[in-house]
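To whoever is on call:

I kicked off a structure prediction for a single chain this morning and the downstream step that reads the tokens threw a length-mismatch warning. I double-checked the sequence; it's 468 residues and nothing unusual in it as far as I can see. Pasting both halves so you can look.
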Amino acid sequence: MRRKANIATIADIIVIIAVTLLNPMLFPQMPPPSIPDKVVKHYRMQLTPDSIQNAIALTEKEIDEMSYYLRLHNVMDDGYNLVAEYNTTLQQRLQLLKNQQAGTVSKTIRRERIAAKDRPMTAVKTQQGHWKAGRYYIGPLKGEGISRDEDGRIVCALWDADTIVKARRIDSLGVYNGQMNSFMEAYGEGTFDSNDGSHYEGMWQSGKRHGFGFESSPNHQVRVGQWKKGKFLGEKLRYTAERIYGIDISRHQHDIGNKHYGINWHQLRITSLGRKHNTEGLTYPVSFVYIKSTEGTTIRNRYFLKDYMDAHKQGIHVGAYHFFSLKTSAFDQANYFVNHTLIRESDFPPVLDVEPSDAQIEQIGGGEVLLKRVRQWLELVERRTGKRPILYINQMFVNKYMVNADDIKQRYNVWIARYGEYKPDVKLVYWQLTPEGRVDGITGPVDINVFNGFQGQFEEFCRTGFHK
């Protein structure tokens, strides 16, 4: 059974009163009218010139990550308005820091001191009652009070009949502001500003992020979506008509069992995104198609050329992909692909499909050996075609083998295969969201992909061949 938070000793009371007197941030006064309150909350007091420059650099980096999110989302996406509002806060913070660096504002934000006799009395909450103005009252507390949670952290809260209405807690990790339960754990809506510069805003349960929320940080991209027991699950997309959908095909769309099927290109229309993705009866046009051309150094798709020409006749954007083998050199495979694939100037960038098992990767010497071969293929194909290839991998591969492959992630667009309900938590150009989609004009299941962005970004990608 959990023990309830309790302040029972005189020593506890003395410590809490001392902390309160020495740390005005627990119950801060209102900031000057010229400085937005949200900016002040995130502002570091008494900054040195070096720390100001560092704070500017971190804020600019966080704004860059925020800009990436805002560029690829719109008001239809859950949490968009919250993120946009926080982006405004970041812009204000950056301006305040730059003004301070230039010497146009004082180096310390000063708050007016209020005479002790004019300050509201703060109660010290205990299990059965509270101390206030030197007297002990038995019964529920209404108003401001301070207490300790079961980990000994100071909690300042507004109480109503012993129920916390809102609270503020400062500890070694950062500052929490929001709702709490009876155990003084974060519960309900709340924000947390970490000492490492990250900001979370959303739902909590039992002291952990749980439910919908977003996190912004200078150290990683914006995370908007569902959290569970402190872990980020991912972003759920809304599958609207504004999104850009495409397919990838091979001979398996033609040869099914012992039967052969053609593709009715003029009928193409996506009717299902698979069982995990509810489209509420909507259907979508096919805006792009990738066709398998080669595999290793000996396998060619006999249907590539006809599918390629038919797709072009329908005005569909076309790209070709190569299935990577670990049995032959990357150099030979790159040349085999280019020599046997029709690639026009207007085509989408070629794709390298990398899908080895962990056992296969181990047999060739590990992930670094594989990534070296991948780099060779990408570089050679780019030199020969003039197009920067796209790397197709799955989320597990990214998490396990590409932690230290920043050169690949920064130079090449990534196409992720992930069949769960959440969007991959990486920067990408396409997301293959199901292998079991349905498309009018094609027999059997089809891989369905969604472009990471909307029409404006898609048109730019069509022009440049690279998705920023």
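Update from on-call: the warning came from a stale cache, not from the record. Cleared it. Sanity check on the structure: The first strand starts at residue 123 and ends at 125.
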